[in-house]
Structures are given as C-alpha cells and as structure tokens.
Amino acid sequence: MVLKSLKNKILGHAPKDKSGEGLYATLDELIAQRQYIAYLKNFHQRLKVSNQAGDVKSAFKGRGIELEELRSYSYGDDVRDIDWRVTARKQTPFTRVYAEEKDREVYVLLDLSPYMAFGTRKELKSVAAAKLAALVGWLCMENRDRFGALIFDGTHLSFFKPSSNRALMPVVLKKISQVSQAILTAAQKPQYLLDKALKMMQSSLKNPASIFVISDFSYFNESVQLSLSQLARKSRVCCLEVSDVLEFSPPPAGEYMIADASGKNLIFNTANKPFRAEYQEYFYSKRSVVKDFCRRFRAFYMSVRTDVDLYKQLKFY
Questions:
Q1: Which pLDDT belongs to residue 56?
Q2: Which residues partner with 209 through β-bridges?
C-alpha cells in the first residue's frame, strides 16, 4: 500500500478515491495531467536556456529572428518579410516566416458552461475540457512560458493574469475543479455564451498572445464568430472542439424515451435510416462551419473526443 501511494506521488496518478468518476474534474486529476507532458513534446530538440526565453522553440510562427520557412506570398503578409532574391529567381513573390518569440503569453479560454456537462462515454465534455486546460498549463510551465486563463461557467468569468510562476497552476486548477463540479447542480440558466468571454479576453490582451479556446462550440453564432475573428487578427488562436461520441454517431437502432426542456416525455426512434443519415450530417455540418472559419482566419483547429485518451489526440509541440 505504501509502495502504491509512493508510485502515485512520483508518477502523478490520481487515486481512485480522488477521482470525479468522469462527472467532474478533481484537483488531483488535473495535477496528474502533468505526467502526459512527455507524450506531447520533444525533449530532445531544446535550445539554450536563458532568463528571457523558454526552453523549447515555439510551435507558432510569426515575427522573430529564427527563419521558420519560406513560402509563397499571400494577402496580408508583411511586405518587409518578402525575400526579394527568391522572388526574382522564381518570378513570383515569396515571403519569409520566422519562429515566434519563445516567451510569449499563452492563455486558455475554458468553456465550462452547463451546456458542456454532457457525456455518454468515459467522461463529460466539461471534464475533458478541464483536463485539456491543465495539459496546456503544464506545457507552458515546462516551457517557461507565461500562462494565463479565463474560465467561464455561463454566468461568471474568472480571469488569471499570465505568469511563469508555478505557484499559479494550483490556483487555476483548483478554480477549474470547483467550476466543473458546480455546473452539475447549476440552477441558473446561462446568461451569456462564448462571445462574452471572447470579448473580455480581447479587452484584457495588451500584447499578441497564443490563445487556446476550449469549447464544444455548440453556439457558434455570428456574434461568437465576430469576436473570435477580432481576436485572431491580433493573436494566434487555437480552437479545441470537444465532442462526445453520441453527438456524431446516433445510438443503436431502437426506441428511446427522452424528456424535452419542459419535462415532457417523448419517444425517440433511431431505426429510420434517413434519420440516422440526417443525424450525422447535422453534426458534421456544424463542425465544418467551425473548421472553415478557422481556416479562413488562420486559426488552428483540432477536434477532441471524450472517449479517447487526450494525450493520444494532441499534437501541440
């Protein structure tokens, strides 16, 4: 028993009695996400350590001193980055893309509204989103980046200024754990959706940053798109869409009893083939809207499932 406890402390595994059983994210589970850093980044490709920069090269591209790649010029590129020698040789404009500064601010905008408290396999979407936020935070701490977070539960916003101090992580993770548990019994209807949080993030930014928006993007309306596009113009945005298997694949053919918003029971029949096809088309069309938006505004997009281990799906660095 002593050896098992020691193993948990060393490896960061959360004991079973300290697990939220997939319904909410406990502090121990969020701290334990640190063990997966080795799966997400390459420890062998390190640069020299200094007091002003992180240990590893940033995954994001922008203005800096290290050449990242040479590509065809596209609308919106800075004319100062045009490589005139290559342009003259190829007879078409080429621009230089430099590696981003390695000590930039990194934010997580975490959607823990009651709409995220849904799941049929392994854990709720809110739990997977909370673990994603923890993974990003631990990566930032490991890379000596300045990490900040904006957490919203559909009613309140909690903002944490970016810092490279490791003492910030337990504070942020504790808040995430508390919110993920509180939304299970939330009686109030959410007063605002993702666009309010995006606007607050935009007003809080003083310098260009890297922002991970973690949500299911179920309400990706014009207001959300406008706020997200304004944020993407000044910062590097990464959209992590969390989804449950039941959202993109209907349940086995049969009849199911469900309750609508008013509490009235309805019979839900999934045996009809046209219905099953329409069911899947509805989800994939919604996902396509988010993916096309990210492509248009040069934001990174990644889909994350709740029924698969997170570290097996992520490719940040």
A1: 42
A2: 105
